[in-house]
Amino acid sequence: MSGTSLDGVDAAMVRTDGIRVLEFGRTEYRPYSPAEREILRSALGREDGCEIEAAADVVDAAHVELLSGFEDAGLVGFHGQTTLHLPDEGRTRQIGDGQSLARALGVPVIWDFRSEDMRHGGQGAPLAPFYHFALARMLEISEPVAFLNIGGVANLTWLDPLREVPEAPGACLAFDTGPGNAPINDLCQARLDAPLDLDGRLTSAGDVDPGILKRLLEHQAYFSRTPPKSLDRNTFSGWLSEVDACTPEDAAATLAAGVAQAIAAGLTHCPNAPTRVLVSGGGRKNSGLMAQVSEALDCLVLPVDEAGMDGDMLEAQAFAYLAARVHSGLPTSAPGTTGAAKPVCGGTISEP
Q1: How far apart are CA 196 and CA 328, in angstroms?
Q2: N or C: which end of the chain has fewer CB within 10 A?
Q3: Residue 300 pairs with which residues in a beta bridge?
Q4: pTM of the model
C-alpha cells in the first residue's frame, strides 16, 4: 500500500481464504526519500504526462525492492499510487504496473482494484470495508462498530458483523468523511519544511480558531451529502489558505478540528451509532488530532492497536485480503460501500 500521505510503501502478509482472516504475517515499511516524495507530489492531480511517468517509475521500483523480500508470498495485492480520484466525473488514476511487478516477483499480482467498480457506477473507494468486516468477525464483535482510517483522506466503515456476508444489504456502509492528514501534512511542508506533524506535537500545542473552523465546515456541501461518496486527496486543499494568518500551531489545531468535525458529521449518516470507533492510519499517532476526534464523537474512540491489530499496516493487509477475494471471484465492493449498482469483483490478475 502506497497511500495519499506519500510517506512510503507498507507491505504486510496475511493468511486468508478471502473470507476469514486466519493469521497475520510479517510486515515491512519502505519510506520514500525526500526526492522521491517530490516526484510523487508533482504527479498529484494528473492522469498522464512526464510527471506521471517519473512517478510510476518510483512506485514500481519501490514496490519491487520491498516485495522482493517476501519470497514466500503466494499472491500479491498491489494498490498502486493514487494521483487523481474524481469519481463523480468517472475518473481515477492509480499509477504502477502490476504486470511488471508480477514478472519481477514471479507470483500473480492483483491490481487495478477500482476500475471495475466505477464501471458499475461505484465511487471506486473506499475499498477496505470488506476487510474491516472480516476483522470484526475475527474479533467476535457482535454489535455495530466503525473502523476509521485517517490517512491523507479520512474514511469510515460502519458495519454490522452479524450479517452473513459483507456484501449483504445492511452489512457495511463506507465513505470518505473528508480530509485526514493531508491538510496538516501540507501545512508542515509549507511552513516548516517537514513532511508531517510528528506525534502531533504541533497540533497539540495550538488553539482552535472557532471562526476559521466555522468557515472550513460551512463551505463544503460534501459533509451533508448522503454516502457512499469519496474524495481526491486535494479536494480540501483550500483549507490551507484559510489558516494563513494563524501560527503553525494554531493552524494545525484548527485543521485537526475540521477533520474531527467532518468525521462526526459522517457518523450521522450511519444507520445507528457504533459502540466504538477503531482508528487506523497515521492520524492515530497525532495525539492532538485524536483528542479532537474523541471530543467530537459520542462513543469510545480507540487505536486499532488496542484491539490487537497493527494500525500502520491495516490498509496493506486489506489489499492482500482483497487480492485473495479477487483470485477466488468474490465481491470486493457493494452498493453500501461504493455505491456500485451491484456487488462487484474488481481487480486485474497479472500472471508472472
Answers
A1: 39
A2: C
A3: 276
A4: 0.92
Please give the single-letter amino acid code of residue 125: A
Model confidence pLDDT, tens digit, residues 12-37: 999 999 999 999 999 999 999 999 99
Rounded distance, CA 110 to CA 323, Å? 6
Widest CA span of the chain, in angstroms? 56
Distance CA 74, CA 326 (A): 14
Residue 152: phi and psi, rounded to 5, are: -60, -40
Cross-strand pairs, 149: 155, 280
- Pair type for strands 348-350 and 109-111: antiparallel
Asked if 347 and 326 touch (Cβ cutoff 8 Å), the reply is: yes
Pick from 296, 333, 348: nearest CA to 122: 333
Kindly report, residue by residue over 315-336, the tens digit of the pLDDT: 999 999 999 999 999 999 999 9
Residues 80, 63: contact at Cβ < 8 Å? no
> Alpha-carbon torsion 109, 115, 116, 117, what sign?
positive
Spatial distance between the Cα atoms of 297 and 158, rounded to a whole number of angstroms: 14
- In this structure, the dihedral spanned by the alpha carbons of residues 165, 166, 171 and 177, taken in order and rounded to 10 degrees, is 170
Compute the distance between CA of residue 178 and CA of residue 135 in angstroms, rounded to an integer: 24
Task: Give the residue among 333, 177, 328, 323 at the shortest CA–CA distance from 263.
Answer: 177
The radius of gyration of the chain's CA atoms, rounded to the nearest angstrom, is 19
Cβ atoms of residues 35 and 61 within 8 Å: no
